[in-house]
């Protein structure tokens, strides 16, 4: 007889409180729960709860709940109740209207206008950079100015001597407290923004002005009008650790990928090169030569680690994008 069809309750099971119900037990899970500690002790692995960070512990519990493994009891003394045919969650979702995608609002006006007197009108130079501490550095001729977006304060950081300047490129270090300056006399200077002190000067890197800079941890990559790209380790005395040659014009843009293994360079020769840091060869890994003007703005896709997506902006304002497959990159 089907008790549910006649609207009657299912009678309770007469089970002893000391004898579990074997049909309601998961013997595989019980065996794993009882022998896991013995196996770890035998293999010399000790996992204590205090070694797990709060985030890892929360992830472990969430994963166990999703997989149905968040059980602390091994013995079962009664059968589990039957799940309802239609839960409240599913019934509510059936009547819920599909959500419309939110439309992004693009501002029609800028939020801030900064005066930039004496800024050089030169497309090939990189005269501003936004640091990780929300500070914008702008080169105004021989003077470097800082604008703190958090407080709105503007200050003159340093003024370069006449025979060294003007400033031709700027790049904040990843820590946001050190800034690199490329100069017209081929020098590269490193400054500490907290103490307003020059840390060191890199000489002999280029034989022309330095118009592009890019950081990769402690490696500062410089690009000059001589078409040469140089990797400098700022921690050591002999700072030049690698040189890339492949451009016939001035280096206008440099950008390291998120992994720090590939470098994209754009030049006044209308060419984009991709270099591999791990390769022993200084030859470019990939070459894009279908642009019709100088290439300056380069950007790697931060969310795609399988294919390397590159966005390029030319001098004439035309932008293009492409994907480099793992075989090419």
Low-confidence stretches: 1-7, 325-329
Structural class: mainly beta
Q: Assign an overall shape.
A: elongated
Could you state the CATH homologous superfamily of the largest domain? YVTN repeat-like/Quinoprotein amine dehydrogenase
Radius of gyration (Å): 31 Å
CATH overall fold name of the largest domain: Methylamine Dehydrogenase, Chain H
CATH class category label of the largest domain: Mainly Beta
Mean pLDDT: 79
- Count of domains: 3
Give an account of the 3D structure.
The chain is mainly β. It is built from three helices and 19 strands. Strand 10 and strand 11 (228-233) form a beta hairpin. The relative contact order is 0.06.
Record the SSE blueprint.
Layout: H1 27-42, H2 54-67, H3 88-95, E1 128-130, E2 135-140, E3 143-148, E4 154-159, E5 167-172, E6 178-183, E7 188-192, E8 197-202, E9 210-216, E10 219-224, E11 228-233, E12 240-245, E13 251-256, E14 262-267, E15 272-276, E16 286-288, E17 295-300, E18 308-314, E19 319-324
Antiparallel strand pairs: 1-2, 2-3, 3-4, 5-6, 6-7, 7-8, 9-10, 10-11, 11-12, 13-14, 14-15, 15-16, 17-18, 18-19
